[in-house]
Design a protein that fits this description.
With about 180 residues, the protein is mostly helical. The protein is built from seven helices and no strands.
Length: about 180
């Protein structure tokens, strides 16, 4: 009888549960997944177009030096510092978004009625980003195809969502 009890207690679990992470850690990993996905997407597009790191350079120039540097007559010299600064800022924005997503999903785990609202919030956030980019960063979108920006953001959302879905696999969402 004691042998059976020992076997039951010492038996390894049949399913492996994910390691326990704090919400900021989970958000940082989710944000890093999204930032890396979009960075790799644009690196791939830039390499195929024959000018690696063009996208983060142009976005960094527009952000740090103003939209006037994107005029067709402006002669731009490549700056790795601009690329690194923009990439770091972009990563930070994704980490903050991932932290917000992680927090909202933790709330939705305790109240399934919030789940659909969380999903709708992030769909509107993605749409708002693309719409805002079209309104306020028109010269940047002339330099870059808006379709590639939309696809890149959708890929990043899928990467972040996939990671968070796996972390919250048992969450129930009510419409």
């Amino acid at each position: 009888m004691i042998g059976q009890l020992t076997e039951i207690i010492a038996a390894p679990p049949k399913t492996r549960t994910p390691a326990r992470l704090t919400l900021p850690q989970e958000g940082m990993i989710a944000g890093t997944c999204g930032a890396a996905t979009i960075a790799l997407w644009f690196l791939l597009l830039d390499v195929l177009a024959g000018h690696p790191l063009y996208t983060p350079y142009m976005l960094g120039m527009a952000l740090f030096r103003g939209r006037s540097v994107l005029a067709p007559s402006a002669h731009l010299t490549f700056s790795l510092g601009i690329v690194i600064a923009f990439t770091a800022l972009h990563w930070l924005a994704f980490v903050l978004t991932g932290a917000l997503a992680s927090l909202l999903l933790a709330l939705a785990e305790h109240n399934p009625n919030l789940g659909f609202g969380v999903l709708l919030f992030f769909v509107l956030l993605t749409g708002g980003f693309v719409g805002g980019a079209m309104m306020f960063a028109e010269p940047v979108l002339h330099a870059l195809a808006w379709q590639s920006v939309l696809v890149g953001n959708l890929l990043a959302a899928v990467a972040m969502g996939g990671y968070l879905w796996r972390r919250h696999a048992h969450m129930v969402i009510y419409p």
